[in-house]
C-alpha cells in the first residue's frame, strides 16, 4: 500500500486543539505522511502567535500561509477567504498532497476546501453536519458539499450529512478528536497558571487553579457584528457583579472581534478588576485542564458544549452563536442580559459538576480517523445521493 500524504490545515487556536491528537496519529501511522500547513490567525502577533505552540509541540511545519486581512469586518473576512484560496492553491501545488484535511466551519477552512476541490485533491472534513449560529453554519455545510470523506462528531450530525445527499459510505461517525486530548490531558494536573509564553495576565501574578474560578470565552457573532461591543459588555458587567477569580480569553478574528477587544480593554482600564486575568492563548492541553477545573464556563465557544460535556463542566452559553448545536444537561442558555447571566452562573455554581456525557465522543476518535484516511476508497467525482 502506498503512503498517503495528508495535508492538514490549522488556522486558529481552537482548530489546533481539535486536531492535535490526529496529527500525532497520522505521524505514527505507517500508511500516512503528515504535511502540516499553519496559517491565518495562528501567525498573527495580536492573537499570540499560536504557531509557537505548534513548534514547541515538535510538529514540523511544511508551510506558513499569511492571508488574514486585519480589520475584523465582514468585508475583511470575505477578502481573507479569497486570498486564502490563492495562497493555499500555491501551497498545494508545491506539496502535492494526496488529501487535504480541514476542520469545522471557519472561512479559512472553506478557502482550503475550495482550492483543493478545484485542484482535484480529495477533501476530508472534520465536524460536518452540526448546527449553530453565525456564518459558520453556512460555511460548514458548504465545506460538506466540497468534501469527499466526512468525520462527524455525533450520530445526529452523521444523519444530517446523509440527508444532505452525501453517500453513506463516505460518512464515518468517529467522535471529536478534541476529546482524545481531554482524555489524556486530565491525567496531568495543572495547579497554577503560568503567565509566560503566549499567555499574559492583566497583572503579573500567578493564577491559582485550585481556587474556584470562572473561565470566559466569548466571540463575535458575524451576523450580529454591530452589536458585538454591547454583547461583551453585558458579560463583563456580570463578571463585575460576581467578583470571582476569572480567566478571560481574548475574542477571535471574526467581524466584531476588534470592537469586543476594545470594550474589554476599556473595561479593564476603568474598573481595574483585580479578579480578572486576560489571556491570548493556551496550549491545547492546558486549556482542557483549565476548562475542566473551572467552577463555570461563560461565553459562546463551541468548546464549552463539546469538551465541556465530556468534562462535566457547568456552562452558561450566552447568545446565539451556538444556536441549534447539540448540548448536554451541563449547559444553561441565556440572552445578552447581565442579570440573566449572573443568575445562571449562580445556579451552576450551586449545582456543581455534571456527569460525563459521551455525545461528542469517547476519547478514541483519532485512531479511527487515521485508519479511514489510510484505507478509504475515494471517488473524486461527487454526486448527490438522494
TrEMBL record:
SUPFAM superfamilies: UDP-Glycosyltransferase/glycogen phosphorylase (SSF53756). Residues 25-373 form the UDP-N-acetylglucosamine 2-epimerase domain. InterPro entries: UDP-GlcNAc_Epase, UDP_GlcNAc_Epimerase_2_dom, WecB-like. It comes from the Bacteria. CDD domains: GTB_UDP-GlcNAc_2-Epimerase. Coiled coil: none annotated. One of its GO terms (molecular function) is hydrolase activity, hydrolyzing O-glycosyl compounds. Pfam families: Epimerase_2. One of its GO terms (biological process) is UDP-N-acetylglucosamine metabolic process. This is UDP-N-acetylglucosamine 2-epimerase.
Amino acid at each position: 500500500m502506498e503512503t498517503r500524504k495528508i495535508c492538514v490545515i490549522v488556522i486558529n487556536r481552537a482548530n489546533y486543539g481539535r486536531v492535535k491528537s490526529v496529527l500525532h496519529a497520522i505521524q505514527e501511522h505507517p500508511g500516512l505522511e503528515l504535511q502540516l500547513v499553519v496559517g491565518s490567525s495562528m501567525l498573527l502577533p495580536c492573537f499570540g502567535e499560536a504557531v509557537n505552540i505548534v513548534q514547541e509541540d515538535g510538529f514540523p511545519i511544511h508551510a506558513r500561509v499569511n492571508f488574514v486581512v486585519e480589520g475584523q469586518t465582514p468585508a475583511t473576512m470575505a477578502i481573507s477567504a479569497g486570498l486564502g484560496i490563492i495562497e493555499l492553491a500555491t501551497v498545494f501545488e508545491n506539496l502535492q498532497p494526496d488529501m487535504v484535511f480541514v476542520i469545522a466551519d471557519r472561512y479559512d477552512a472553506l478557502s482550503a476546501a475550495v482550492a483543493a476541490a478545484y485542484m482535484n485533491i480529495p477533501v476530508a472534513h472534520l465536524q460536518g453536519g452540526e448546527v449553530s449560529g453565525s456564518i459558520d453554519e453556512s460555511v460548514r455545510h458548504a465545506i460538506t458539499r466540497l468534501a469527499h470523506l466526512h468525520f462527524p462528531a455525533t450520530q445526529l450530525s452523521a444523519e444530517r450529512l446523509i440527508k444532505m445527499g452525501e453517500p453513506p459510505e463516505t460518512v464515518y461517525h468517529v467522535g471529536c478528536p478534541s476529546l482524545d486530548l481531554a482524555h489524556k490531558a486530565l491525567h496531568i494536573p495543572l495547579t497554577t497558571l503560568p503567565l509566560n509564553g503566549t499567555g499574559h495576565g492583566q497583572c503579573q501574578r500567578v493564577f491559582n487553579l485550585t481556587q474556584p474560578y470562572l473561565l470566559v470565552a466569548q466571540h463575535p457573532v458575524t451576523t450580529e457584528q454591530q452589536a458585538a461591543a454591547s454583547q461583551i459588555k453585558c458579560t463583563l458587567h456580570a463578571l463585575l457583579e460576581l467578583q470571582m477569580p476569572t480567566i478571560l480569553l481574548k475574542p477571535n478574528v471574526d467581524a466584531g472581534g476588534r470592537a469586543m477587544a476594545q470594550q474589554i480593554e476599556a473595561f479593564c482600564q476603568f474598573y481595574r478588576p483585580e479578579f480578572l486575568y486576560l489571556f491570548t492563548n493556551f496550549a491545547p492541553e492546558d486549556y482542557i485542564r483549565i476548562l475542566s477545573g473551572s467552577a463555570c464556563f461563560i461565553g459562546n465557544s463551541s468548546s464549552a458544549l463539546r469538551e465541556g460535556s465530556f468534562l462535566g463542566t457547568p456552562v452558561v452559553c450566552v447568545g446565539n452563536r451556538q444556536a441549534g448545536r447539540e448540548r448536554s444537561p451541563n449547559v444553561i442558555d441565556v440572552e445578552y442580559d447581565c442579570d440573566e447571566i449572573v443568575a445562571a452562573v449562580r445556579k451552576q455554581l450551586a449545582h456543581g459538576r455534571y456527569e460525563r456525557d459521551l455525545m461528542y465522543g469517547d476519547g478514541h476518535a483519532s485512531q479511527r480517523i487515521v485508519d479511514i484516511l489510510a484505507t478509504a476508497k475515494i471517488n473524486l467525482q461527487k454526486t448527490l445521493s438522494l
